[in-house]
Amino acid sequence: MRAPSLTWIKWVGFCRAGMRTPGCLPRPMDLTLRLVTALLTVLSLLAPPPAQAQLAGHGGPVRALAISVDGKTLLSGSFDTAAIRWSLATESAEQVLRFHSDAVNAVAFVGDGRMATAGADGRVAIWTPGRPQPDQVFEGHSGPVAGLAISPDGSKLASASWDHTVRILSLPDGGTRVLQGHSQNVNGVAFAPDGKSLVSVGYDLTARIWRLPGGSADIVMMPSPLNAVAISPDGEIVTGAADGKLRMITADGKVTGEVVASAAPIVALAISHDGALIAAPVIDGTVAIVDRKARSVLRMLAGLGRPVWSVAFLPDGATLLTGDADGKIRRWNALTGATIGSNLVGTPVDPLIAYAGDHGAEIFRACVACHTLSETEVQRAGPTLAGLYGRKIGSLPGYRFSEALKAMDIVWTPETVSKLFEIGPNAYTPGTKMPEQHIGSAEDRRALTDFLARATSK
């Protein structure tokens, strides 16, 4: 079969790191990290999913995990724009939280059972279990929010953003304080156990220890961009970097050690409740389990074949949850490296197996990462394409479209779909979250639109 002439994903850059200005290029550091992360995300989504997993409900990579203090409830956030509250006792979803218009990058429990979610849409939402909409919404960030942290006394919520700032939200009165100083994307934030300082890390090669309540910062320079931070119960700061190394810092800013977890970037961190273990997922799909005191890698969790984007320890200090690129959440025994339950990868299932040999289906394969063909499938990052033709853009019930799309007059037909891929989403549907992509061949565009007519009709 002739390969389709599809130019897949031109990742639009930014004039300033983390700021959404179409047509500009990022700084070289941002470009490398963004491109590697973005391409691995898409490739992992296109890979056939495992047949079984413990918690299945998300339609995209699980970008964030948080465990309630009592260890009974899990909160997850995903690239599919949703957060899910899970019962760990029954391994079932108790509530799906839909509010954000872009990926949910960070989640946290904020006390009294309440929850916080934050997204690439720059918003932070506070939820009460069982209520369909947030109690409070904070919209001060001008870029994606990448991390959240709750203070030990539960009164403050810190958010790290790609707008180069950290914000501290006062939950009792809704007041906000902005901490400025980072020169590039801020990727992670964590409160010290005593609540007297806050640590943020970013692409600018710095960890900043903000002294509270004053807000002055001690700056610790690092040799590599930082993607994640966690603080142990005894106050030691642990950072995860793009060079695959963990670095340990004292509360007063002295680097006291490092551990090589991988040659690939570390994307998240979690420390067990007793402070003994560190879990560090790596973009290559492995998770390093590190003995924090010994400064050594105990073992590597492997076998999933796709990136792990988030990790969280249960209160027992031994059970680790991983949020994976296939939208599943899995359990591991961090002490032995053994899987718990049905984590093992099963026989791959091709979502387009029924269309084997169909040229249009092969072109559509690049779209499987974000779109389903049927309403019965779990929603992915984009809206389902079931019943596509004849539907006005931005009108599908239950999916949160941008205001720009909802205001357009486009009705999806074979002609408009063809035009979308001829000139690209940025030009045809400005304001879309869809990655920029083109299909140069008119023959290939016709094959795709004919396939969609067959596969999406009700």
Automatic annotation (TrEMBL):
PANTHER family: TRANSCRIPTION INITIATION FACTOR TFIID, TRANSCRIPTION INITIATION FACTOR TFIID SUBUNIT 5
CDD domains: WD40
Protein name: WD-40 repeat-containing protein
One example GO MF annotation: metal ion binding
Family annotation (InterPro entries): Cyt_c-like_dom (IPR009056), Cyt_c-like_dom_sf (IPR036909), Cyt_c_1A/1B (IPR002327), WD40/YVTN_repeat-like_dom_sf (IPR015943), WD40_repeat_dom_sf (IPR036322), WD40_rpt (IPR001680)
Signal peptide: none
Keywords in alphabetical order: Electron transport, Heme, Iron, Metal-binding, Transport, WD repeat
Cytochrome c domain: residues covered: 355-456
PROSITE patterns linked: CYTC, WD_REPEATS_2, WD_REPEATS_REGION
Source organism (scientific name): Bradyrhizobium stylosanthis
Electron transport as UniProt keyword: yes
WD repeat residue intervals: 55-96, 97-127, 138-171, 179-212, 301-342
Pfam families: Cytochrom_C (PF00034), WD40 (PF00400)
